[in-house]
Amino acid sequence: MKPVRRRDLAVLAAGLAVAVWLLVRTWYGELPPLRWWLPVPLAVLAVAEALGARTLRSRLAALRQARAASGRGGAKPPPGPVRPVEPMLVARLAVLAQASAYVGAVFAGVWVGVLVHVGPAVRRLQAAGSDTVTAAVGIGCAVVLVAAALWLESVCRVPPEEDGPSEGVSA
After folding, report:
1. pTM of this prediction?
2. How far is the CA of 18 from the CAs of 39, 115, 120, 132, in angstroms?
3. Alpha carbon distance 28, 21 (integer Å)
4. pLDDT, tens digit, for every residue of 39-93?
5. Is residue 9 classed exposed, middle or buried when 0-12, 13-18 and 19+ CB atoms within 10 A define those classes?
6. How many CB atoms lie within 10 A of CB 61?
7. Measured between alpha carbons, how far is 50 from 142 in angstroms, rounded to an integer?
8. 118-122: which pairs have CB atoms within 8 A and are 24 or more residues apart?
9. 112, 88, 103, 118: which is closest to 27 by C-alpha?
10. What are the pLDDT digits (tens) for 129-160?
11. How far apart are CA 96 and CA 113, in angstroms?
12. So where are the chain's domains?
């Protein structure tokens, strides 16, 4: 698996922002009201991924510390029992992180497109005030989701081996 390129996320968000701005500009009067809680599920997913990244990072660090202690006599072993990490769990979390990064970029683009239209219209349209708040909350939640997803993806990366690749493995 290749890591998510930040450039791809930025291009996706920018392209969708332009497309959504054009759509909202055309049909803004026909859209239902945008409530502030609409982007909250993105924040919930971001919190879950951040907690997962923190937990996985600490478990992997304890596992590496235990391996170093068993390999060398001088290294300090971890204080408690070390729970092994299932390799398939790490692979699934990496896939979840990549998918969430793209979803966050999509929603960031959508909310930026909405904000670009409703932001300047706050003084002349009554509904634009609450829609501006919703768009700002949406952008914040989407950006937090992208950051949490990229952090989880970085935690899932396999560190390079210290002694080089093992026998039979070509780089």
Report:
1. 0.86
2. 19, 11, 16, 17
3. 10
4. 999 999 999 999 999 999 999 988 888 887 777 666 677 677 778 889 999 999 9
5. buried
6. 12
7. 14
8. 118/24, 118/28
9. 118
10. 899 999 999 999 999 999 999 999 999 997 76
11. 26
12. 13-24+35-69+84-156
Tokens 């990490």 -> residue: 85
Paired tokens of 73: 């006599």
Q: How far is CA 74 from the centre of its chain?
A: 38
Q: Which two tokens stand for residue 123?
A: 């003084």
Two tokens, residue 17: 């922002």
Token code pair at residue 71: 């390999």
Helix (H, G, I), strand (E, B) or coil at 85: coil
DSSP 16-76: HHHHHHHHHHHHGGGSPPPPTTTTHHHHHHHHHHHHHHHHHHHHHHHHHHHHHHHHSTTSP
